[in-house]
Amino acid sequence: MEIVETVETAALLDTRAVSAKEIKDEMEGLIEEFSPFMHSRVAKYSMRTDYDRREELFSTALMAFYEAIQRYEIEKGHFFPFANRVVCTRIIDHIRKIYRHEGQTVSLDEDASEQPTAQSTAVEEISVRAYTADRRQEMLVEEIEQFKSELATWGITMDSLAKSSPKHKQLLDEYRMAVAKIHQAPDIVQTIQLKRYFPVKTIAEITGLPQKKLERARTFILASLIIKMGDYDLLSDYVHDRR
């Protein structure tokens, strides 16, 4: 279940980011690991005419990532969305400076009398994409926190979910099939939601899976159903049937 890795990685990354402020090796390790991330942000937010400036923009992204580590406060949220926001903002600011230095007008004022230039339109599009990406990441973090809270009401931790998640595709497909069939059975869903009970025998009848296998899959199935039955627009991508 990929969401397990997402949640565990987020929590571990938060701790590492805090440590990186004082530990040089941790700082260097994070920078090396996130180098592809910074390159991807440079490629995403630079325009076609900026190909020859990619190295310059990467240096900006690198300094922004270092800045994010120095400014990060763990009690205010997860590190990745914060670092992503800082890096994207610095790249956009640098692109604006490039245009100003070259004597090109870049206006983001909707009330400006002059006609928008190709450069101003491009920067506006970059700004919108950056905002959208940041907002999606923030929403994902919010969903993850809510998901962890709901898991706790069933006595499920992220560690137990990780251990029970199937590692082989065939088994994963079987579990996903079971989740889909349960989700389409209102009586079973109601039993699970209201009675807080996992009716293994009934589920075995509608899925064709052995009861022992379903018992082993209980944690994974419940976690998947929590996402399907809840308000988890982004996390739902992790549990739909991809066959």
Structural description of this entry:
With 243 residues, the chain is mainly alpha-helical. Helix 1 crosses helix 2.
List the helices and strands and how they pair.
Blueprint: H1 2-20, H2 24-33, H3 35-45, H4 54-71, H5 79-101, H6 118-153, H7 158-164, H8 169-183, H9 186-195, H10 200-207, H11 211-216, H12 218-229
Helix pairs in contact: 1-2, 1-7, 3-4, 3-5, 4-5, 5-6, 8-12
Order of helices and strands: HHHHHHHHHHHH
Helix content: over 70%
Proportion of residues in β-strands: under 5%
Query: How many β-strand stretches?
Result: 0
- Calculate the terminal CA-CA distance, rounded to whole Å: 15 Å
Helix segment tally: 12
Largest β sheet strand count, sense and barrel closure: none
Shape: elongated
Average pLDDT reading:
78
Structural class: mainly alpha
Rg (C-alpha, Å): 23 Å
Which residues sit in consecutive blocks of at least 5 with pLDDT less than 50? Answer: 105-117
